[in-house]
Write a structure and sequence with these properties.
Helix content is about 10%, strand content about 25%. The protein has two helices and 16 strands. The strands form five sheets. A seven-stranded parallel sheet has the order 1-3-5-9-11-13-15, with no helix packed on it. It has a three-stranded parallel sheet with strand order 12-14-16, with no helix packed on it. It starts with 16 loop residues before the first strand and ends with a strand.
Length: about 210
């Protein structure tokens, strides 16, 4: 499959998992993905040929827990509105959230998704509702890492590697105390590794190599 993302997808408003990785789609990521598909929990457009900027309307996906746009040709800055991903901005899932997820799993249909975390692709099913990740690696993103990402305190994996990002590593990333994997390698970052990273007690995969850090 190739070409642009099918416009008819915007009618699938009840979708909670959309995995279109490795389909050779091209063109820009459409604005309506965040606007119309606001119930998405997983959005993977990994390994396509998308170009242009990340649309700001993608931030309307307040239920989004896993965003994977890796291995495309996306340029421009990382949107500051990423802090609107409220499902990634809470440390503890409420009992109501987990009950809804269990209902989906047990009574409606079996949900699973392939996620790439810590450099490995694995299938998540029963634990999918607890996983939170952002992967924008292997693109051509520019500018600084937005400080607003530090508000996503429920985030467990952040991969911004192999881009053209500049500036200091934001100190506020040290607030992401649930973070298990952080990859900022192969960018143009400079300055020191923030001392706040000592708060990342769950971190077991950490890569900041191939930058200009001191």
């Amino acid at each position: 499959m190739s070409g642009e993302l099918p416009y008819t997808l915007q009618n699938s408003t009840s979708l909670i998992i959309l995995d279109l990785s490795e389909y050779y789609f091209s063109g820009s990521i459409p604005e309506w993905i965040g606007d119309k598909l606001s119930n998405l929990i997983v959005l993977s457009l990994r390994s396509n040929n998308f170009d242009g900027h990340i649309p700001h309307k993608i931030c309307a996906g307040r239920s989004l827990q896993n965003l994977d746009l890796a291995q495309n040709n996306i340029s421009g800055a990382i949107p500051k509105c990423f802090n609107n991903f409220s499902a990634m901005a809470t440390k503890n899932k409420s009992s109501g959230d987990l009950e809804i997820w269990t209902t989906f799993q047990s009574n409606v249909f079996h949900l699973s998704a392939l996620l790439v975390l810590k450099g490995r692709e694995d299938e998540y099913s029963t634990t999918l509702g607890l996983v939170t990740s952002i992967d924008l690696s292997v693109n051509s993103l520019t500018g600084e890492i937005p400080k607003e990402i530090g508000n996503l305190i429920g985030l467990r994996s952040l991969n911004l590697s192999r881009n053209l990002l500049i500036g200091n590593i934001p100190d506020i990333i040290g607030k992401l105390e649930l973070l298990e994997s952080l990859d900022l390698s192969m960018n143009r970052l400079y300055g020191e590794i923030p001392s706040s990273f000592s708060n990342l007690n769950f971190l077991n995969h950490f890569n900041v190599s191939y930058n200009n850090l001191t």
